[in-house]
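for the record, two folds in this file. i put them one after another cuz i was lazy. first one right below, seq on top, C-alpha cells after. the second one comes after a little note so u can tell where it starts
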Amino acid sequence: MKSKWVEHNGKQIFYQDFSNYFFNEKAVIEELKEVQEIVLAQPADSVLILSNFSNTEITASLMPILNEASGRTSPHVHKTAVLGIAGVKRTLGDLLSRITGQQLMYFSTEFEAKEWLTKD
C-alpha cells in the first residue's frame, strides 16, 4: 500500500496515493480496498483526506467502484482534497460528488491541498 498518514500544521491527513497507476485498474482497486479499511476504522466526521490521482486514468469501469467506496466512507470523512484531476477526470469527480454527497476540493499542488485541509 502506498497510502499513508502524514502530518501538516499539527493535524493528521490520510494521504491516499493513487498516483502513477496510469491504466492499471487492478492496482487502483487494491489500493482502494486498503484505504477503505483504514477510513472505516476512524470516528465519524474525523478524517482529513488528500487523494492523489496524478498520472492515473479513471476509467468507466472504475467509476462505480469509486462511487461505492466514497458512499461507504463519507460518514467518516471531514474534508477531502484531490490532486491530479482535470478535464474529463474533473467531470467524473464532480459526478462522484453529486452521487455520494461527499464534497471534493481540487488542487494543483500538494501544499495548497494540505493547507486547505488543515485550516478550520
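(here's the note) second protein begins now
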Amino acid sequence: MTLPDERYRAVVQTKKFLEELLTTPRIPKAVKDNARWCLRHYPSEWDMKRAAEYTPEVFQEKMEPLYRMVKQYQQDKEDGK
C-alpha cells in the first residue's frame, strides 16, 4: 500500500513529467496534446499543500521518519506481510 508522502510525491512528479513532455522535441503531437489535456485541471502546488493540510492521511508533503516507520508497519500488518 502507498504511504501519504509517496502519494504526494507521485502526483508532483507526474505533473513534472507531463510538463517535460510538452517541451521535449520529437514527441508526437498527439502525445503532447494528451499531456496538455491532462494538465488542464491537474492539481497545482497550492492544491497539493491544501490537500496535505486537510487530509494528511491521504497526502503528506513529508513524514517524520518515526511516524513513517509506524505507518509502514501498520500497512504491512493490514496487508498480511
